[in-house]
Amino acid sequence: MSEGDCLFCKIRDQKIPAAVVYRDDDVLAFKDITPRAPLHLLVIPLRHIATLTDGLPEDAELLGKLMLTGARLAVEAGHGADGFRVVMNAGPNAGQSVLHVHLHVLAGRALAWPPG
Ligand code: AMP
Ligand code: ZN
Q: pLDDT tens-digit profile of 49-102?
């Protein structure tokens, strides 16, 4: 899938709407359209990276920033004490359905382990 066809690039470019909760020069966070928990955010790099295995060594800081941003947003939403999960699906067996790297941030209920 090219960047031009990518759903999350379209959200980044405001060609389709999303409930954006945070944006800076590197990352964008918005509410998942089908929330699986009371808090369910997606944090994406602004730059199109299709899947985690496409990440390069020079992407380490950017990909780490996804994690730290997800954690900060979970805390800011009031889930620092009760806890949260950050998880990234990569490839078909993990259920990755959008080929633009995205970190799920889930909170607000007890989360089963292991996931599905
Ligand atoms: P994954 O299955 O890990 O690729 O996650 C893709 C996520 O994107 C799913 O949780 C979907 O609910 C979510 N999603 C799909 N379309 C949209 C959209 N237009 N706005 C927000 N989230 C979306
Ligand atoms: Zn994209």
A: 999 999 999 999 999 999 999 999 999 999 999 999 999 999 999 999 999 999
Residue 102 known to be catalytic: yes
Question: Within a domain: residue 103?
Answer: yes
Kindly report whether the global pTM for this prediction surpasses the value 0.90.
yes
Q: For residue 101, what is the domain's CATH number?
A: 3.30.428.10
Neighbours of ion ligand 2 (CB under 5 A): 6, 8-9, 48, 100
Strand arrangement of the beta sheet that strand 20-23 belongs to: 20-23, 27-31, 39-45, 103-107, 84-87
Give the helix ranges, DSSP H, for the chain: 7-12, 60-74
Q: Give the domain extent around 27.
A: 3-107
Which residue has the least CA distance to atom 3 on ligand 1? 96
| Among candidate residues 104, 16, 89, 6, the one with its CA nearest the CA of residue 46 | 6
